[in-house]
Amino acid sequence: MKIVIILPIVFLLNISLLSGQKQSPKIFGTMPIDDTTAMCEREVSVKDWIYFMGNNNFDHRLFPDLSCLSGIYFLLFEDLKKEKINSKYIKVIEGGPKLNPYFGRFYFETTKEYKKLVKSDTNYFSINVPIVGISYAQASAYCLWKELLINLTQPIKVHVSLPTVMTYLKVIENGDSMNAKKCYLLNSLNCNCESVSRKRQLKSQGKALMDSDAYFASRLGLYNLQGNAAEMTRTEGTAMGGSYVHTARESYSDNRQYYTKPEKWLGFRYIVTSKK
Questions:
Q1: Does residue 135 contact residue 249 with C-beta atoms inside 8 Å?
Q2: Are 237 and 273 in contact (CB under 8 A)?
Q3: Does the residue 234 lie in any domain?
């Protein structure tokens, strides 16, 4: 699928060089994983995806597969697909900030109707959960958009892409799924902590997606590398990290999740690499 990416905005990038030594790109929302590469600290979220679509005029080719979405997520994107900037759930802020280093010139806020919808649902809902129901081509288009955006004005160029399998082998820590108090440390199949079940979000453990920055970050500062949404790799059809429909053991780096189409459990994050 060929997608034309519209670039009406610029992105702030700060790459520092110390004593001539190349360092990983310092970009808002990413963490360095080696001397030349930074990784998005969390899975790309529903909120991120709305900004992506909005900055590209809500191109119909960028919408997720609605059959993979449930409940409020389905209603949100269904309405956006029909109404775009006149959606009853998001309000586009005309003019927006002059320059937002992460979301660009397109800016939105949720409406009262959105808040009523969320309040009426007994399940947890948030636009900060990972975007799912998207294809490999759509995820690649997001990476291309980020790359072109970053490189608009910067003398030092970068490449933005899906991470390789080898990258995941390096960053997934194969951490235990529970702590000493028997509370879960990742969102995997059937996990449920009674001690925290009163909190609305944690009722989603093992049943649905949770926020993309839920749980503790890894030693590299990366959230949800294991569990929540499995993440696409640069090898089309292969994902890693497991999800809420996979067991905790399936989130280890020696496992793969395979797909042939958009799935309710499949998302992504990106890496940014300094070009030579």
A1: no
A2: no
A3: yes
Question: 123-146 pLDDT, tens per residue?
Answer: 788 899 999 999 999 999 999 998
Measured from the Cβ of residue 112, the count of other Cβ atoms closer than 10 Å reads 10
| Residue 266, SS3 per DSSP | strand
Pinpoint the alpha helices (H) of 125-175: 136-150, 165-171
- Decide if 162 contacts 234 (C-beta within 8 A): yes
- Quote the domain boundaries for residue 181: 30-274
Say whether pTM exceeds 0.85. Answer: yes
Work out how many domains the chain is built from and give that number: 1
Residue-wise pLDDT for 99-114, tens only, equals 555 677 788 999 999 9
Q: Tokens 């119909």 — which residue?
A: 60
Which amino acid, residue 244? Y
Interatomic CA distance for residues 149 and 258, integer angstroms: 30
Cα–Cα separations (whole angstroms), residue 147 to 45, 87, 156, 271: 18, 29, 12, 10
Q: Percent helix, strand, coil in the chain (nearest 5)?
A: 25, 15, 60
The Cα–Cα gap between 222 and 240 comes to 15
Can you tell me which residue has the tokens 């049943």?
A: 207
Residues 47, 51, 57: CA angle, nearest 5 degrees: 140
- At 143, which CATH number? 3.90.1580
The answer to whether residues 205 and 123 touch, using CB atoms and an 8 Å cutoff, is no
- DSSP tag of 130: B
Instruction: Select from 59, 53, 51, 153 the least CA-distant residue to 96.
Output: 51
Distance CA 238, CA 23 (A): 29
Q: Does residue 24 lie within any of the structural domains?
A: no
In a domain, 1, yes or no: no
Q: How far is CA 29 from CA 103, 123, 223, 272, in A?
A: 11, 28, 11, 11
In a domain, 125, yes or no: yes
